[in-house]
Design a protein that fits this description.
3 domains, alpha+beta, D-Maltodextrin-Binding Protein, domain 2, 303 residues, Arc Repressor Mutant, subunit A, elongated, three-stranded antiparallel beta sheet, 44% helix
């Protein structure tokens, strides 16, 4: 088991690019982690990592050894998982990342329900509206809406994400309601950004054909929750997931327009590392999320 811990430390160091980060992830002191890697290199008689003051990089020998380490760790994880199956109870840790609004309003409740059903599973949720990064490097699962961002990841569909163009009744009263998506060019649109890039244009459909509108406005944010709050306070128009604004629509604090030009649905996916063994607890969580959203979306449409 001590050897396996060293292998995991080596893998984490390569994937994070930092021995300090890897030591923290593995729950050990930096001095102990450094000693472990030095002993490993001495025993193998090779240099695994090129070390500079800023960067760690793999040597040719290190790259070859990395694959063996991953196979050894995966084999042990499979053995552990088989034991968990024999015990008929899921256990272990799962780290999930999701956008702020989606995570707080929809993923959070789903994770809570899953953990209550499987009390030996430990769950951690990181909220970020940026593109998914870190899957396979401390993150087990990323929930994202839209095109898959990285071919190194595999996406499991969780459902469609229908969107609406909405603003507050006060805003529509002051500015008038658009009759066509192009009318949004004359409105203050609240734009979501990801990694500093505005998510434009807004996409609609007309007569079965795609229609793009390069909207603009004075307020942008990488937080979908903040954009929703601004819209509810009359600051402008947002394009938002129906699931994120369901309560606001029901309460009348937001009102939708252009429903006949319904924006094209974006797929919601659970993203995982393509080349990694996936333990039973992770497979079970993905299956749970698929069923959760299927039932929640069905209730939403009936409501």
């Amino acid at each position: 088991m001590d050897e396996l811990l060293t292998f995991r430390l080596f893998i984490a160091t390569v994937e994070s690019g930092s021995l300090s980060a890897a030591a923290h992830q593995q729950g050990m002191a930096l001095s102990s982690a450094s000693h472990r890697l030095k002993r490993l290199e001495q025993r193998l008689g090779v240099t695994l990592l090129n070390r500079t003051t800023r960067v760690l990089s793999l040597t040719e020998e290190g790259a070859a050894f990395l694959q063996g380490c991953r196979e050894a760790v995966a084999a042990m994880e499979q053995a552990e998982d088989r034991m968990h199956r024999r015990q008929a109870a899921l256990s272990g840790e799962i780290v999930v990342t999701a956008p702020h609004d989606l995570g707080e309003r929809r993923i959070g409740p789903a994770l809570l329900a899953f953990q209550r059903r499987h009390p030996r599973v430990s769950l951690e949720l990181h909220l970020s509206d940026g593109l998914s990064r870190g899957v396979g490097r401390g993150i087990d699962l990323a929930i994202r809406v839209g095109p898959l961002p990285d071919s190194a990841l595999i996406g499991v569909p969780l459902g469609d994400d229908e969107r609406r163009v909405v603003a507050s009744p006060d805003y529509w009263g002051r500015r008038g309601r658009p009759a066509h998506p192009r009318d949004l060019l004359e409105h203050d649109c609240l734009v979501l950004t990801r990694d500093g890039e505005p998510q434009l244009p807004w996409r609609f459909q007309e007569g079965g054909r795609a229609l793009s509108v390069p909207v603009s406005g004075s307020l942008r944010s990488n937080s979908g929750a903040l954009l929703r709050r601004w819209a509810m306070e009359g600051a402008g128009v947002i394009l938002k997931s129906s699931g994120d604004i369901r309560e606001a629509l029901a309460e009348g604090t937001l009102e939708s327009v252009l429903d006949d030009f319904m924006p094209l649905s974006s797929g919601m996916h659970a993203l995982m590392a393509r080349d990694r063994y996936r333990p039973q607890r992770l497979e079970a969580l993905v299956a749970w999320l698929k069923q959760w959203f299927r039932e929640a979306d069905g209730e939403g449409r009936r409501g």
